[in-house]
Amino acid sequence: MLETSEHGDSTDPRSARSLPFAPSARVIVVAGESLIDLLVREDGSVRATPGGGPYNVARALGRLGRPVAFLGRISTDRFGRILRERLVADGVGLTMAPTTDDPTLLAVAELDAGGSAGYRFHTTGTAAVGLVPGDLPAGLPATTTVLHVGTLGLVLQPMAATIEQLVARAGSDVLVMADPNCRPSAISDEPAYRARLGRVLARIDVVKVSTDDLAWLEPALDVVAAARVLVSAGPPTVLVTDGGRPVRIVTAGAVTAVDVPRVVVVDSVGAGDAFGAGFLAAWTAAGHGRAIVNYAASSTLARQIEHGARADLYITADPDWLDRLVSRGEISAGSRRSLCANRLVVIAPARRGFPLRFVESFAAAA
C-alpha cells in the first residue's frame, strides 16, 4: 500500500506571494534537487514524501524563520505541485525555482531495521536534473548572504555544472556551504564527480559531512584525516556528523567535539539536512557572515552546532503527528502550541523517533 504524505492543495496565504520576506532581506539561497522519496519499510509498506537534501534544507530554514530561497527546477506534475506547495507553506522564496513539464525525480529509499536508508534514483529526463544557466539569467540575487549546495546537485548533469558555476561566481561576501551527502548509487562517473567536488571545494567555506561520506571519499583514512583532506582543498571548517555521537569541528589546526542530544532513532532520512539548516539558521541569526569563518573560535562554531543538533532532533515532529499525540494524551495541547509557535517543528514529513520527554521539555524551554 502506498501512502502519500503532505498532499492536498496549499491554502496558506503566502502562496500568492513570490517572496515571503522583504526584498531587501539578506537571503540564504539553497541550490539543488527536489524529489519524491518513496520510503520502503521492511514490512513492505511504501510512503511517498517530499524530499531531496537541498529541498529539506530550504524548508528547515524557512521553518526556523530565516529568509531563504530555493534554487532548482520543479515539475508541473502532481508531485511537483506538492513539492512547490510545501515550500510556499514553509515560507521559502521561489523566484529561482522555474517550472517545467519534465517529471519529478524519484528516489526509492529502503529502510533497514535501524532506520538507515539505502537509495536508488530514477533521474533520466527529470525536472531537477535539467537545471541550466539559462534558467538563472541574473545569477544569484545581490542580497544573497549564504549559498548552500550539495547532494545530487553536485552529481547529476547539467544541474551539477550549473551549480558549480554558481559557486564559482558567488560574491566575495557570500558564505558558501556544501553538504556532499554522497549517494554512490547516483554517481555514474566517479572520476568526474570527484574532480567537480575538488573544484567546488576551492570556494567552499563550510563543509558538512557524515562519517559515511568520509568513508566513501577517503576509505583509507580515519575520520579526522579524511576531514583534513577536505580542509586542504579549501574549506577552513569541516563539520563531521556521526549519528548519535558527537559532532566534530575539524580545522587545519584543531578538532573540537560537540555532544548531541540522545534520541531513539526510527529513521534517519533528512537528519543531516536539518542539522545543516540549524547550523546556518543560528549562524546567520547571530549576525555572522563569511569573514568570521576563517578565524571563528571553536566555541563560536560549537554554539551554532548545538542549534543544528536541536533542529535535527525535531526533524520528526510534523504538525499532523503532534495533533495525533495530543489526541492520544501523549503530549499536552500547550506543548503542541509552543512547539509550532516557536518554529521548532522543522520538517513536515512524518518521521518519528525521539523520546516524547524532549517534546515537553523543549516546549517548556521555548
Taking the alpha carbons of the first and last residues, their distance comes to: 38 Å
Please bin the fraction of helical residues: 25-40%
Number of strands: 16
Give, in spatial order, the strands making up the sheet with the most strands: 7-5-2-11-12-13-14-15-16
* β-strand amount: 15-25%
**In DSSP terms, counting alpha (H) and pi (I) runs of 4 or more, how many helices?**
11
**Whole-number mean pLDDT:** 80
- The unreliable regions are 1-17, 312-317, 341-366
Gyration radius over CA: 19 Å
Biggest β-sheet description: 9 strands, mixed
The coarse overall form would be globular
- The H/E string reads EEEEHEEHEEEEEHEHEHHEEEHHHHH
Judged by helices, strands and strand pairing, the structural class is alpha/beta
What report would you give on this structure?
The protein is α/β, with parallel strands linked by helices. It is built from eleven helices and 16 strands. The protein has helices spanning 53-63, 78-89, 159-169, 190-201, 211-217, 223-232, 271-285, 298-313, 319-327, 333-341, 356-365, and strands spanning 2-4, 27-31, 35-40, 46-51, 68-71, 74-75, 92-93, 99-100, 106-111, 117-122, 144-150, 175-179, 206-210, 237-242, 245-250, 255-258. The strands form three sheets. It has a nine-stranded mixed β-sheet with strand order 7-5-2-11-12-13-14-15-16.
